[in-house]
Every structure is written in structure tokens, then in C-alpha cells.
Design goal:
The chain contains twelve helices and eight strands. By secondary structure, it is α+β, with helices and mostly antiparallel strands. It folds into three domains: about 5-110, Butyryl-Coa Dehydrogenase, subunit A, domain 1; about 145-250, Butyryl-CoA Dehydrogenase, subunit A, domain 2 (Beta Barrel), CATH 2.40.110; about 265-405, Butyryl-CoA Dehydrogenase, subunit A, domain 3 (Up-down Bundle).
Length: about 400
């Protein structure tokens, strides 16, 4: 199959490259100490939602200037329709834009709001909700966090226990969420809560939009094994949410949430990130061997073969991503294919991290950024890789989707 660009796509790719060269703020540089994000489309050293709140004025102003430059072209949300402030790009053009931004190592903007909530509101929200929230997502004025998982309802999301009881024009919400990415930076939350406890667990759930500063909302950061804070716990104590902030019909939030998760699992931004990691690793090995001599023969052969295998797997992932693109271009909705992408990408992330640690040997135990291979990136990446087969749907859930929906195997 020929994955090369058409003349039109080649011209668009050249346009994107020129735009990044000319418009990316010169004072906006990566923070190599800021490993707070686990999102696959993020770029090493940048965490846009944290950068916009940074105490460093150059980082804060650079993040907002970059958002403004992208917004001028509709490229903050390139896949949104033009009528809602997007660029209305084709799926192939969106893929090219994402690919070139990853290749240039510049960050995407407002990922959770753009990629998850925005499409959900466009499909299921009221016109008032779209008018209120979509422009502020595009400008970077407001960022969002997704409150779905709970301590007893992670892989089995429908088992959630957070309750929303209607009292006139408001719902009173009580409960807890966990593993909420970037909630410490979020201005607003979109959450699931049970509105009818007597219905079967997949029913009686509603989705709500919630100002994070509403009385009764408590955000508690969770420090991971890297010493970073990529996610949080949320506690809701008699939080009053206007009925107007419900997304879609009452008790039908499960179906809205499933659409949101489909948006989440259709991401295609990891391929370039993984390829660049391997390229950086190979460059470090060559530089080290040029100055200190070759690695021991056996170790060198093992590492060489593993890196070759990882590069082959990156090309497989790229083909899976392009298959998703071609399906979307044809008007089809990836479902099983998105689960295949998610599972393969998550496990590849872990294999790349393990190969990197094997290649750098004893350096892998050095946590510092200065004077270590790839500025300590691989040591952080190795630990960061652990939750990748859990977040956005566990590996077991993805395999069940592939088995039942893709292969037609029985559920029992």
C-alpha cells in the first residue's frame, strides 16, 4: 500500500512546516524537568496545560502565544467544523498536522478540551453549552479535566458510585474520582454521576460540566513513582451543578461517555514520538562509541537487534494509524481498530522504554537530568511506561473489545 503524500498533501505538509518555523515563539522552550504528562500526543519537555499556569513568565506567555498562533489558522482544533472555530481539515490533513508538530517537537494545545470534550459537545451538547465553552477551549482561556474513573470503577466504569440527586434546577453531587489527569490545572471538569440508582449499571448515568472552583470540589494531587503529579483525586461534597450543565439527556450519559472514549482512543500522535526516541537513542550510542569504543560484542548485538525490532514495530504502529486515517476519510468510525491502536501503542511504549534502559546499562539508575544519557529521559520514561497499559482503557479491556467486536468471539 502506498502511504506517500499526494501533491496536495505534500503542499499542506510544507505549509505546516513553514508555519511552525515562523510562528512558534522563540521564548517558549521545553522544561526537561517537567515530566508531568502521560498523554501520548505530548512532547518531551512541554506540558501545555501546566505551562499556561507557570510561574515562569516566558513559559506562560510562550504557551499562550503558541495557542493564539494556532487559533489564527483553526489549528488548535483542526478536526472541528469551521462553524465552531476549527479548521475543518480532512482526516489526512489533521494527521499531517499532528505528525509535523510531533516531528518539530512543539506541543499541541488544550488536548483534553480539544480532543475529548469539544467533539462531545459538538455531537451531544446544547447550543448554549457550545457557545459558552467551545470558544474558550480554542483560545486556551479554559482547560478541562475528565472525571470518569473511580476507586472501584476504573476498568468497569459503569460501576461508578458518584451520585447526582436533582433538586429543582440543580443536581447535588457527592462522590469521588481518581486518576484525573491535569485536574490541578483545570478550570472546568466533565464528570459522570449516577442519577438513577435503581437502573442497571450501564443506565441511570448522566454527564455534567462542572466549574472546578464550585464549593465542595476538592482536588488532591497524586504523586507517581517518578515523583511527578500527572493525575489527581477529586472529591465532591454536596456540589451543586445547574441542570443546564447536563450534557445530553438525563440517565443517558453512558452513551455520551462512550462517544467521548471513542474520541480518546482514536489518537494517532504516538508514532513520531516513539521514532524520535529510538533515533535519539541510536545517536547517543554512536556518540558514545565514537568517544569510548564499542559496547561489549554480545551486549551490542542484543541492543542492536532490539532497536531494529522496535523500529519495525513503530512502522507497524504507523500503518495502523494510517489505516485509521483511511477509514475516517471513507466516513467510517474506527472502533475495534482504535482498540488495536491503543493496545499496540501502549505495549510498544513499554518495550521501547525497556530497550532504552538495556542500551544505557547502569546509566538507567541515574535519575538526574544533567550529564546523563538523553538528559535522564529514559529513566523517567521507563517508570512512566508502567501505567500505559492501564490508562485510556486497560490492556484487558482492549483485548476484550478486539475479541468480541473484532473477532466475534463469545463473551463467556
Amino acid at each position: 500500500m502506498d502511504w506517500s503524500d499526494s501533491p496536495e498533501h505534500r503542499a499542506f505538509r510544507d505549509d505546516v512546516r513553514a508555519f511552525i518555523r515562523e510562528r512558534f515563539p522563540k521564548n517558549y522552550s521545553p522544561d526537561i524537568h517537567g515530566h508531568q504528562s502521560l498523554e501520548p500526543e505530548d512532547v518531551f519537555g512541554y506540558n501545555w496545560v501546566a505551562d499556561r499556569c507557570s510561574s515562569d513568565p516566558d513559559r506562560r506567555e510562550g504557551a499562550m502565544a503558541w495557542a493564539g498562533a494556532l487559533a489564527e489558522r483553526g489549528w488548535v482544533a483542526p478536526h472541528w467544523p469551521k462553524e465552531y472555530g476549527g479548521a475543518g481539515l480532512s482526516v489526512a490533513e489533521e494527521h499531517i498536522l499532528s505528525e509535523e508538530m510531533a516531528r518539530a517537537r512543539v506541543p499541541q494545545v488544550n488536548g483534553i478540551g480539544v480532543n475529548l470534550l469539544g467533539p462531545t459537545l459538538i455531537a451531544h451538547g446544547s447550543e448554549e453549552q457550545r457557545r459558552q465553552h467551545l470558544p474558550k477551549i480554542l483560545s486556551g482561556e479554559v482547560t478541562w479535566a475528565q472525571g470518569f474513573s473511580e476507586p472501584g470503577a476504573g476498568s468497569d466504569l459503569a460501576a461508578l458510585q458518584t451520585k447526582a440527586v436533582r433538586e429543582g434546577d440543580v443536581y447535588v453531587v457527592n462522590g469521588q474520582k481518581i486518576w484525573t489527569t491535569h485536574a490541578q490545572y483545570a478550570d472546568w471538569l466533565f464528570i459522570l454521576a449516577r442519577t438513577d440508582p435503581d437502573e442497571p449499571k450501564h443506565r441511570g448515568i448522566s454527564m455534567f460540566l462542572l466549574d472546578a472552583k464550585t464549593p465542595g470540589v476538592t482536588v488532591t494531587p497524586i504523586e507517581d513513582m517518578r515523583g511527578d503529579v500527572p493525575f489527581n483525586e477529586l472529591f465532591f461534597d454536596d456540589v451543586r451543578v445547574p441542570v443546564a450543565n447536563r450534557v445530553g439527556e438525563e440517565h443517558r450519559g453512558w452513551y455520551v461517555a462512550m462517544a467521548t472514549l471513542d474520541f480518546e482512543r482514536s489518537g494517532i500522535g504516538a508514532t513520531v514520538k516513539y521514532r524520535r526516541t529510538l533515533e535519539d537513542l541510536v545517536a547517543w550510542i554512536r556518540d558514545r562509541e565514537a568517544s569510548r569504543g564499542r559496547l561489549r560484542h554480545h551486549a551490542r548485538d542484543v541492543v542492536r537487534h532490539e532497536i531494529a525490532q522496535r523500529l519495525i514495530e513503530v512502522e507497524v504502529l504507523n500503518s495502523l494509524a494510517l489505516r485509521t486515517v483511511s477509514m475516517q476519510e471513507a466516513g467510517q468510525v474506527p472502533n475495534v481498530e482504535a482498540s488495536v491502536n491503543q493496545l499496540f501503542s501502549a505495549e510498544l511504549h513499554q518495550r521501547i522504554a525497556a530497550t532504552g534502559m538495556k542500551a544505557i546499562g547502569m546509566w538507567g539508575g541515574n535519575w538526574e537530568h544533567d550529564g546523563t544519557p538523553l538528559e535522564g529521559f529514559l529513566a523517567h520514561k521507563y517508570l512512566e511506561a508502567v501505567p500505559y497499559t492501564i490508562l485510556s482503557g486497560t490492556a484487558e479491556i482492549q483485548r476484550n473489545v478486539i475479541a468480541t467486536r473484532g473477532l466475534g468471539l463469545p463473551r463467556e
